[in-house]
Write a structure and sequence with these properties.
With 95 residues, the protein is mainly β. The protein has a single domain, classed as Sandwich (Tumour Suppressor Smad4). It is built from no helices and 11 strands. The strands form 2 sheets. The protein has a 6-stranded antiparallel β-sheet with strand order 2-1-11-10-7-8, with no helix packed on it.
Length: 95
């Protein structure tokens, strides 16, 4: 199954599969980030045909792709080289 490789500024690596969620706690997310300002279940990444997407699934927090806001419930196409921001300190790069 294809995977999406993300690298956090703190060096944490995430190998996300289609439909995985990323957030702060293991209770809600498939992958946990060590940032208290990230929602328990913040974003979901998924693949439709050959394209990866990010969906903001946090009703209380923002998500950004290349500094463009992705509102709650919205999807944004993502690709290698894109930078994701989930909080002031939590930045991810797609490899």
């Amino acid at each position: 199954m294809p995977a999406l490789l993300l690298l956090a500024k703190d060096g944490q690596k995430i190998v996300a599969k289609n439909g995985d969620s990323i957030g702060r706690t293991e209770l809600g997310a498939d992958y946990q980030l060590k940032f208290p300002t990230v929602s328990p279940k913040h974003i979901q990444v998924f693949k439709r045909e050959r394209t990866w997407y990010l969906k903001n699934i946090s009703t209380s927090s923002r998500a950004y792709v290349n500094e463009q806001e992705v509102p709650w419930g919205a999807e944004r196409e993502i690709k290698a080289g894109d930078e994701l921001r989930l909080s002031v300190r939590c930045h991810l790069k797609i490899l």
